[in-house]
Design goal:
This protein is 75% helix and 0% strand. It is built from 13 helices and no strands. Helix 5 packs antiparallel against helix 7.
């Protein structure tokens, strides 16, 4: 711990991230969930897509599978694994001890998040490459939109994980507190089914769910069906969610054990 606190900010973050990566590797259940779910679940939703006219929306099975895989990466590789990590470190008094050194609060939160976010990024890129090769999705027509959505989704998932951990008492209960966002995002954010096929009013509401803008940008990278104005509006919504989530974390994140 002393080597972390005496180092400059960049080295402190790197040292903390390396320590978190080692701890993550020891938790086999979290690693399995983070790695397996984004690969398995997209294929489980393919039967439901069979009865949908995807071509009308400019989509294909391959495009939806790639988008779903990246969406599940947000939820499982980053969000649920970080809820567990933040809660466990808090309850074990690790976060409290780190705050007594030179690490700032933001450095502690960011350093803890770096391994899952890095894992999510690598996994999303590998999944995208796999879909291009095996499902013939082709390269994204507007890759900057996919990368923008990927960045927004990873950052927002980490911030939402810290916020969820604030209201989670134990690592065991983290599976329960994380479930609402996971289910709502799977159904309503365009991960499992396109938002466009939902009834008009419901689709309008779902478009403003936390991960919906990021998923829309990721998918638009393949379809290139967003106008400049639509892309700007979607990006602004994603940034607004990130700002709100970060503010909420600063306001409500708990550093003391919830006992």
């Amino acid at each position: 711990m002393s080597s972390i606190t005496r180092a400059p900010a960049g080295r402190r973050l790197r040292a903390l991230a390396q320590a978190e990566l080692a701890l993550l590797g020891r938790n086999r259940s979290v690693v399995f969930t983070a790695l397996a779910m984004p690969l398995v679940l997209p294929f489980s939703v393919r039967p439901a897509l069979g009865g949908i006219d995807l071509h009308k929306q400019g989509l294909s099975i391959g495009t939806m599978t790639a988008t779903a895989a990246i969406g599940f990466t947000f939820l499982f590789a980053v969000y649920t694994s970080l809820v567990n990590a933040y809660t466990a470190r808090r309850e074990e008094l690790v976060l409290k001890r780190m705050r007594t050194g030179e690490l700032s609060d933001s450095e502690i939160l960011i350093g803890t998040a770096l391994p899952p976010v890095g894992l999510g990024l690598v996994q999303a890129l590998l999944v995208s490459a796999g879909c291009m090769a095996l499902l013939h999705t082709g390269a994204p027509r507007a890759p900057y939109l996919t990368l923008l959505g990927l960045a927004a989704g990873l950052v927002l998932s980490a911030a939402l994980a810290a916020l969820t951990a604030s209201f989670t008492r134990t690592t065991e209960s983290g599976q329960v507190t994380a479930l609402p966002l996971v289910l709502v995002s799977m159904i309503g954010s365009g991960i499992s089914i396109p938002i466009e096929i939902l009834p008009g009013r419901l689709a309008s509401v779902c478009a403003f769910l936390p991960l919906s803008p990021a998923i829309r940008l990721v998918r638009a990278g393949w379809t290139d069906r967003l106008s400049a104005a639509q892309a700007l509006g979607t990006t602004a919504t994603a940034l607004a969610w990130i700002v709100v989530a970060v503010f909420a974390v600063q306001r409500w994140f708990r550093w003391e054990p919830r006992r």
